[in-house]
Amino acid sequence: MLTRQKSNTRKPSRVPMEEPSKKDKFKETVKKLSEKLEEEQEKSKEYLNRLKYLQADFENYRKRVEKEVHEAVQRGNEQLVACLIDVLDDLESAISAGETTENKDALLEGIKMVHKNLEKLLENEGLERLECVGRAFDPNMHEVLAEVPTKEHQSGTVLEEARKGFMFKGKVLRPSIVKVACEDSEECDKK
């Protein structure tokens, strides 16, 4: 019988590499998650700091704009008051002249000039007088003082202005107080 001789050399055995245990996998996952969490926390801190700077910048901007608006209003008021000082001077001159003169016509003429100068100044600033007599009643621009029965004018026509109305830069500043036509006394009483 033939015997097989055993050799001292062994076949290399295949030893499987050790697979990481579940515990090792878990530790590695926790480590990665911790690193990712730290990164996100850093980003969060950076975003928070940016937000704080933006809030501070916005607050400074708001205060600056508020100050600039206040200064612009102040300058506008100063210009108007400077113009009104001239009118005040004219009125003081008229008062002084009225106390020393017997000529009332000259005094009246002086006051008319002051009035004209004041009207011109206010018009230059954007004030407009509402023209309403002979026009249709508009509740946005007029207030009714009385209704007058008449057949000469169409109902709703402004007949008389009791107090002048004004617009400032396209907006009604003070409505006119008016007397309005109505067709007969019964129609006027119904309203």
Concise account of the structure shown:
By secondary structure, the chain is an alpha+beta fold. 56% of the residues lie in helices and 16% in strands.
Please describe what this structure looks like.
- By secondary structure, the chain is an alpha+beta fold.
- It folds into two domains: 25-125, Hemagglutinin Ectodomain, Chain B; 128-190, Roll (Nucleotide Exchange Factor Grpe, Chain A, domain 2).
- 56% of the residues lie in helices and 16% in strands.
- It contains three helices and six strands.
- The chain has helices spanning 22-100, 104-125, 185-190; strands at residues 127-129, 142-149, 158-163, 166-168, 171-174, 176-182.
- α1 (22-100) runs antiparallel to α2.
- The longest helix is centred in the first third of the chain and has 79 residues, at 22-100.
- The radius of gyration is 46 Å and the shape is elongated.
Q: What number is the mean pLDDT?
A: 86
In terms of structural class, how would the helical and strand content be classed?
alpha+beta
Helix run count: 3
Radius of gyration: 46 Å
Question: How far do the termini sit from each other?
Answer: 142 Å
User: Uncertain spans, ≥5 residues at pLDDT below 50?
Assistant: none
| Strand count | 6
**Architecture of the largest domain, CATH level 2?**
Alpha-Beta Complex
Task: Give the strand order of the largest sheet, numbering strands 1, 2, ... along the chain.
Answer: 1-4-5
N to C succession of SSEs: HHEEEEEEH
- Percentage of β-strand residues: 15-25%
The CATH topology name of the largest domain reads: Hemagglutinin Ectodomain, Chain B
Total count of domains = 2
The level of helicity is: 55-70%
The CATH class of the largest domain: Alpha Beta
Rough outline: elongated
Major sheet description: 3 strands, antiparallel
